[in-house]
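Please fill in the sequence for the structure shown.

STRUCTURE ENCODING:
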């Protein structure tokens, strides 16, 4: 029984550690290389869709949107993980909490990740670019999307 309580306590602490956390990705000059339709992060080597679509999607549709995206001469786009999307949050900026030099025209909104919320089936992680925090949402909730490769 003590092992079970310890496991439950660990899951609870891990959930608290992720739920509503702020990212700590300050963007120094030169971190982002801006192209016509894409922005490359020189720290993570990830290339991002520079401007998100105006539409909102549930998580499955967000995955499908990214999987079907052809942008900047590439067709290998995907929905980012929670860790990847949090890497471009800049908590020093007011909403949107993102470097506007690398990501102009970013609405302050929730954005889907491909990361499921492990403690509860049917939930997935989103990142708020109005507050710079992560939050689990029901997979059927409409949120914005920014694809990565």
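FILLED IN BY: designer on duty
SEQUENCE:
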């Amino acid at each position: 029984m003590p092992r079970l309580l310890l496991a439950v306590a660990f899951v609870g602490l891990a959930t608290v550690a992720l739920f509503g956390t702020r990212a700590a990705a300050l963007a120094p000059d030169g971190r982002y290389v801006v192209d016509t339709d894409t922005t490359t992060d020189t720290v993570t080597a990830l290339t991002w869709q520079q401007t998100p679509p105006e539409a909102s999607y549930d998580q499955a549709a967000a995955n499908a949107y990214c999987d079907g995206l052809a942008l900047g001469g590439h067709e290998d786009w995907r929905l980012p993980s929670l860790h990847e999307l949090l890497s471009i949050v800049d908590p020093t900026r007011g909403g949107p909490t993102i470097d506007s030099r690398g990501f102009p025209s970013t609405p302050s909104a929730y954005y889907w990740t491909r990361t499921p919320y492990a403690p509860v089936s049917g939930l997935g992680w989103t990142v708020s670019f109005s507050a710079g925090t992560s939050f689990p949402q029901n997979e059927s909730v409409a949120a914005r999307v920014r694809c990565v490769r």
